[in-house]
Amino acid sequence: MTESKWLKSIVVYSDGACSGNPGPGGWGSIILYPEGQIRELGGKLNPTTNNQMEISGALKALEVLADRDEEIVVFTDSTYLIRGITQWIWGWKKKGWKNAEGQDVSNRDLWEKLSRVVSQRKAGKIEWRYIRGHTGNPGNERCDEIAVAMTHGRWIDLYQGPLIGYSVAVHDFPPDLPLPEMRPKTEKKVAHSYLSNLNGQVVRHTDWASCERRVKGKSGAKFKKAGTAQDELSILKDWGLDPARVKDQDESP
Q1: Which range of residues forms the domain containing residue 201?
Q2: 144 is annotated as an active-site residue
């Protein structure tokens, strides 16, 4: 879809924000109609997450546009939103709303609503476009302003009216950008040991659960995770204890 074609389509900018993640959050959207009208939308929720607000910004705009037949282009800086609705959702549905790790998909209720709105469109398609956030694009910056104001409970005037009276240069469309590559998941580091210290008697545990059981509710108890053998020696040194006196979990009384 070229920029000239976008002028004949409905253009949506959307963004979400959250303070705390989870915490109070807000979303903002701008709808640019081909007949030269603008409508700003915004809302808030507490508690919520940033991802929930990102989905909500696009979802609310598309719900408003449910009876429009034109093609829609949605600009968002959320790769989670774009990948979720264009790639991941098919696998989630096939697996009974489980992700690749076999866990329940986060924000399933919002994804189901968004999927339903998208699939119910009988005419124009929806094109999802990535925009890099906080790079000065007027539409994206305005949506962020709305979302942040909603997050903090500040009043903000949401514009609805002709384009000629709108101060945001929404026709300054962002460049065509590919989605950033996904970062590979890093494997969780396995601890070398867990040390529990009760009155100077130290036990080396292979798991946190057994370490916690030994120290929980005990006055003056100390505990520490050691990432490496050297970490373990450093912890014992800090405690002023001899490494030779440390007992392994299966040796302790």
Answers
A1: 193-251
A2: yes
